[in-house]
Task: structure prediction
Amino acid sequence: MPRLLLLLPPSTYRAEAFLEAARLVPVSVTVGMARVPAGFAVASGDSVVLDMHDHRAAAQTVVEFARQHPIDAVIGVDDVTAVAAAAIADALGLPHNSVAAVTATSNKRQMREVLSAQGLRVPRHRVFPLDSDPRDCALQVSYPCVLKPLILSASCGVIRANDDETFRVAFLRVGALLTTLGVAARDEQARWILVEDFVPGCEVALEGLLTHGTLQPLAMFDKPDLLDGPFFEETIYVTPSRLPADVQRNIIDCAARTAQALGLRDGPVHGEFRVNTEGVWVIEMAARAIGGRCSSMLDVAAGMSLEELIIRHALRMPLPPLSTQTQAAGVMMLPIPYGGRLHEVRGQAEARAVPGIVELTITAEPGDALVPLPEGTRYLGFLLARGTTPEEVEQALRDAHRRVTVVIRASTAAPTSSSPASAPPQAMRL
Result:
């Protein structure tokens, strides 16, 4: 049986879906991670401890591991593990994207510089050191603008500024986030803040698969909620897109040119694009699949999940004919309304009873600390829906969402899950 090395970050929503897909292939799975959690199977060949932030060391560790347990494919599920996967695949002589190409996708400055040089439409941008005086930086930018960390994802630390004062506040806020998360201490790229022009327009996401440099689009998602700031919390994704056919073709063409410009040739890609009267703008392209539970709504080929497709593709197994998804489906990432400790989530049965809803998963546990964007790094949970039209799916998600109430114990100093809260529970209708 072939062996897959699945690289996982310390926390992820993706592990279960990939492990279930691996059982269907079938393939033996070795999990690579920075630390082995309590209760994880650690029999010989089941896991290997890797430093994902040192991809050269990780590659050497896996080369030695593979002498006893040969590896046939390597998959990373987020931006950091995707870089490590490229380095490991290169060391093992497996099909892979170059480390340079994947690194560029995980660094917003590098990505924009590469794409701009290739004539692709990206926001005008510049970077400032984390220790800069924000008052001086504010005089060097145009408004409105968007401040972003170079290396975080899922809209974490992304803030719009409309004038000098909101810029100063946003700059300090992003800097504090990078320090609090500890990334500034270990990663040089986290010691810079990207500032780019705000690009108006609708936003879409494209899921695709690259084979020898050729892009196969799998799904295009509309994001019906306007993402104009000051924060950019993504909530609803709906597929298929309702944009005109010619606009969709332009987005797919832009995605293919983006992958080519970055040097990506193999495996899944996830792109984020904005569309306005000037054309298609590249916001992001990642050398990985879509995050969270979003892939659960996709049926990419003959009942095959996205994760199974990715595994089979990595192992060079035969694939069924692929096409862009036409079945209407959608997902809502449940937002965190304000900070505190989760007490309970009410109305779950009512939400699941809404016609079209196929799944409601609350990923936060009672007692968990909840932090909203732009500092937050997680969602409360996920709603999934299917229907006959994108409009029907979107309405089902909104109807179900209105039935959910999250109760949070709000306090200035968040208590531990075992200690009493200093404030009474507050209910927030989501």
Remarks:
- The domain at 202-324 is CATH 3.30.470.20 (D-amino Acid Aminotransferase; Chain A, domain 1).
- Residues 413-430 have pLDDT under 50 and may be disordered.
